[in-house]
């Protein structure tokens, strides 16, 4: 399993969390998505490393912005 942390800009409520989680969970190989709303950190656990472009597109589709790629 691979775990990556991303910074997402613009999330302000539980609906935001659900929207981002839903889009990221739809990516192939994603097993778990955890969102820390106060910090904007999104932790994604997947079977294989995810394509950064796909992650950014999923966050964009939810209506938010991926900031600077991975946090770690």
UniProtKB/TrEMBL annotation:
PROSITE patterns attached to this UniProt entry: HMA_1 (PS01047), HMA_2 (PS50846)
Keywords: Metal-binding
One Pfam family it belongs to: HMA
InterPro entries: Cu-bd (IPR000428), Heavy-metal-associated_CS (IPR017969), HMA_dom (IPR006121), HMA_dom_sf (IPR036163)
Coiled coil: none
UniProt keyword Nucleotide-binding, yes or no: no
Annotated ranges, domain HMA: 2-67
Protein name according to UniProt: Heavy-metal-associated domain-containing protein
The organism of origin for this protein: Streptomyces plicatus
């Amino acid at each position: 399993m691979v775990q990556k942390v991303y910074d997402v800009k613009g999330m302000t409520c539980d609906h935001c969390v659900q929207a981002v989680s839903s889009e990221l969970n739809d990516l192939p190989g994603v097993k778990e998505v955890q969102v820390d709303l106060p910090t904007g950190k999104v932790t994604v656990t997947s079977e294989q490393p995810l394509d950064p472009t796909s992650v950014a597109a999923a966050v964009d589709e939810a209506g938010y912005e991926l900031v600077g790629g991975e946090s770690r």
